[in-house]
Automatic annotation (TrEMBL):
Organism domain of life: Bacteria
Protein name: Beta-3-deoxy-D-manno-oct-2-ulosonic acid transferase
Species this chain originates from: Sphingobium cupriresistens
One of the GO biological process terms: polysaccharide biosynthetic process
Presence of the UniProt keyword NADP in the record: no
InterPro entries per the UniProt record, alphabetical: Capsule_polysaccharide_synth
Pfam families per UniProt: Capsule_synth (PF05159)
GO MF terms, alphabetically ordered: transferase activity
Length: 546
């Protein structure tokens, strides 16, 4: 019987195993690549291999593979509930051992790490992990196995497989597969303990189910009230889309002792935004707050303030930033409009409008009262500059609040632009003024000067000119690539629009650059028509009122 590769993919819900596969047992003609001690060190660091996505029972002091005899002396001082019996092959003898029969799919790393000993055969996943974690392995003969022998067995097991990039199909080595599995583990671990999800738009639910799958299941979509009740009963958290649950939900959760995980669109996502009903390609799941709320701490702010960014991560972020800029990827998609003509010999400023009732404006706007107030502040800060105002695309599409009549805009700005390629415009002006827009972050990635009137997540780290009062939680000096590492690599989750597998930001950037987005459905077309009608009514009302 061909052994199952030690490095293998989780059984992602709704995804064919052939799509997700990252390894297969080598054919006889395949030449096994040697495996170094560095590979084993990576395994120990990231704890991948075996069924790492499985159940994590607690309180297990002795781990026994069913069918392996255990000497009575090994059970001294243990209660049956401290002995975990991992299912073996069908019909394996139990030898009368009393203990807790564990689920078939358990995280072997979590099991072995808490055990004082493991009883299994020398080629068992449990045994190989015991050898890496320095936990004694007792074989079927009752004799402890030399850890060096276990490491040699693991090296042979790793070499007896071939590996592939599940996103491209290209062959890769074991180290690359370990890093992919490490990303998956981080994604799945971030979903542990979420009991229910509330406030998710129906057209986002399939994607959200993939984002919140924890290796065993995805949380059910329930009303906020039912979700709170389920979370309290299970001792878990409630995932919410903040703008789509009743305002009292968070307070009720606190009163009930239910943790809340806030889910929002990430910083890189499929074209079309919410206005066109394209499901998100990226989300963030924040357990302490949310990145756009400057009034309270959140996971991203804490990460940026405290994380020890290793050089390998910073180098990865630099490559990612270069990739993003070269591909022309932005949250708003690539645009093919005509570039606006900027005056020569004069300081030029781009003022970026936003959706006025967006939570990022209400909670991160630092008291700025809408787009008109923002424009007036830009003019006060730049009295002699030539200012071009860029309205938000969702406002232009007629879907969201924040439209300003041209006369009101031109009382403070010199021009209005709605069609120039945004990133080309960002790089052409002398300064980009934002309230809390993501455009400010994208401008920083491209080496542009950014002035911030609010307090978005990228302000307060020494990279922007900040006009709002600083919070006491920021102040650490970061490089742009450290900011990118936290914001685009560590904080969000991504789903590949092609395979529907969790992926890294590099895959998402490549897909966006290649135009790999979901097809335009009848629902998207209806939503676009609704926006055009609303836009027409707004302009018609302006015409009637002069």
């Amino acid at each position: 019987m061909t052994p199952v590769p030690f490095l293998r993919s989780p059984p992602f819900a709704g995804i064919a195993s052939s799509t997700a596969a990252i390894s297969r047992s080598a054919d006889n003609g395949d030449v096994a690549a040697p495996v170094s001690d560095e590979i084993l060190a990576l395994l120990s660091q990231f704890r991948v291999g075996g069924d790492f996505w499985g159940h994590r029972p607690h309180g297990v002091h002795l781990v026994v593979r069913e069918g392996v005899p255990v000497d009575g002396g090994a059970l001294a001082g243990l209660w049956p509930q401290q002995i975990g019996i991992v299912p073996g092959t069908a019909g394996a003898p139990t030898y009368g051992l009393q203990g807790v029969r564990l689920p078939a799919c358990c995280d072997p790393w979590a099991l072995v790490a808490q055990a004082r000993a493991v009883h299994a055969t020398g080629d068992d996943d449990l045994a190989l992990i015991a050898g890496l974690l320095d936990v004694p392995l007792i074989g079927p003969d009752g004799v402890q196995v030399d850890p060096a022998m276990l490491r040699m067995t693991l090296k042979a097991r790793l070499a007896a497989a071939t590996y592939r990039d599940c996103f491209t199909g290209a062959p890769v080595d074991a180290a690359q597969v370990i890093m992919q599995l490490a990303d998956w583990r981080r994604h799945l671990d971030g979903n542990r303990g979420i009991s229910a999800a509330s406030g998710m738009a129906f057209w986002k639910r399939e994607a959200i189910g993939h984002f919140l799958w924890d290796g065993l299941e995805a949380p059910p979509f329930l009303s906020a009230r039912r979700g709170l009740r389920r979370a309290r009963q299970q001792g878990g958290a409630l995932a919410i889309w903040p703008s789509r649950v009743p305002p009292e939900t968070v307070g009720e959760a606190a009163a009930m002792g239910v943790p809340v995980a806030r889910v929002e669109d990430g910083f890189l996502r499929s074209r079309g935004l919410g206005a066109a009903l394209h499901p998100p390609g990226s989300v963030v799941v924040d357990r302490t707050g949310i990145y756009y709320n400057a009034r309270a701490a959140n996971d991203l702010e804490t990460l940026l303030a405290t994380h020890d960014f290793p050089q390998t991560l910073v180098d990865r972020a630099a490559r990612l930033r270069h990739r993003v800029c070269m591909a022309g990827v932005t949250k708003y998609g690539q645009e093919a409009g005509q570039m606006i003509v900027l005056p020569m010999g004069r300081r030029t400023v781009l003022a970026v409008g936003q959706v006025e009732d967006d939570l990022s404006v209400r909670l991160g706007g630092a008291g700025v009262d809408g787009n008109l107030d923002f424009l007036a502040r830009v003019r006060r800060a730049e009295p002699d500059a030539w200012i071009v105002y860029r309205p938000h695309p969702d406002v232009q599409a007629g879907h969201r609040k924040g439209h300003l009549p041209d006369a009101s805009v031109l009382a403070h700005a010199d021009a209005i632009d709605t069609g120039a390629p945004l990133m080309e415009l960002v790089q052409a002006v002398d300064d980009v003024h934002v309230l809390s827009s993501l455009t400010g972050f994208e401008a920083l990635m491209r080496g542009c000067a950014v002035t911030v009137h609010g307090m978005p997540f990228y302000a307060g780290w020494g990279l922007t000119r900040d006009l709002a009062k600083a919070t006491g939680r920021r102040g650490r000096q970061l490089s742009v690539d450290q900011l990118v590492a936290g914001t685009l690599i560590l904080y969000p989750r991504y789903i590949d629009p092609v395979t529907r597998l969790p992926c890294g930001p590099e895959v998402m950037v490549d897909r966006m650059a290649n135009g790999s987005t979901p097809p335009v459905t009848w629902l998207i077309r209806l939503r676009m028509l609704q926006g055009k009608l609303r836009r027409f009514m707004t302009l018609f009302a302006e015409f009637l009122h002069g």
